[in-house]
Design a protein that fits this description.
This protein is α+β, with helices and mostly antiparallel strands and 219 residues long. The chain contains nine helices and twelve strands.
């Protein structure tokens, strides 16, 4: 199945797996709840209406607590975009890329909150987890001409260390596929190339939008 055929519902974290803070919480209640949830982005729900009103970031909450001020969730909550549960993954990715916090709320056609979806959820579908079939393939093959055939799932830090490249080339991603996404700053297409730190990277094999193989050679 191509990534564009997958929906937000297929990639999201469903509602029953999402822990939420209550908007009307006292400072002490909010601090206790945040310590329990302890995620970078935490959903906030109104106790009165049951509606999800936005998110609070752990960083913002920590800043308030570190100043020994009362924690008021109403003052910290920020809006995040909403997507349909039937929106395709490519459309969702466009929304997430424009979102400051790279998270969106997923609703069905009846206006019911169904879950959340993040950039990481979509990127996981692109980069792919290491399957048993992947594990049987080498992460890196040195070709006769000296170029390197690299599997998308190869750990980026291991690859960068081997070539003496900066680990920061992959940004916050963990794999070579993630490194390519970070450098391109968009969805990949077959034949995409870029050069960095003396090496040329070319996307030579895709499974839908999942990056399977990258050819790396000296620029």
């Amino acid at each position: 199945m191509r990534l564009g055929d997958r929906t937000a519902r297929a990639l999201m974290t469903p509602r029953h797996e999402v822990q939420m803070l209550e908007l009307e919480s006292t400072s002490a209640e909010a601090v206790a709840a945040i310590r329990k949830v302890a995620r970078p982005r935490m959903l906030v729900q109104s106790r009165e209406s049951g509606e999800v009103v936005g998110i609070v970031t752990l960083a913002d909450a920590f800043n308030v607590v570190s100043r020994r001020e009362a924690l008021d969730l109403k003052a910290l909550v920020v809006d995040v975009p909403v997507v349909s549960d039937q929106a395709d993954a490519l459309a969702v990715m466009e929304v997430l890329q424009k979102s400051t916090h790279h998270i969106a709320l997923v609703y069905d056609e009846y206006g019911h909150f169904e879950g959340i979806i993040t950039t990481d959820d979509v990127l996981e579908a692109i980069t792919g987890a290491v399957s048993s079939a992947d594990a049987d393939e080498p992460a890196l093959v040195v070709r006769a001409d000296g170029s390197l055939l690299v599997s998308g799932w190869m750990p980026a830090d291991e690859f960068c260390d081997r070539l003496g490249l900066s680990r920061g080339l992959a940004g916050e991603y963990d794999t070579i596929a993630g490194l390519v996404l970070h450098q391109l700053d968009r969805m990949p297409v077959l034949g995409d190339t870029f050069a960095v730190e003396g090496y040329r990277f070319e996307v030579i094999d895709l499974d839908g939008l999942r990056i399977d193989k990258v050819l790396v050679s000296e620029a």
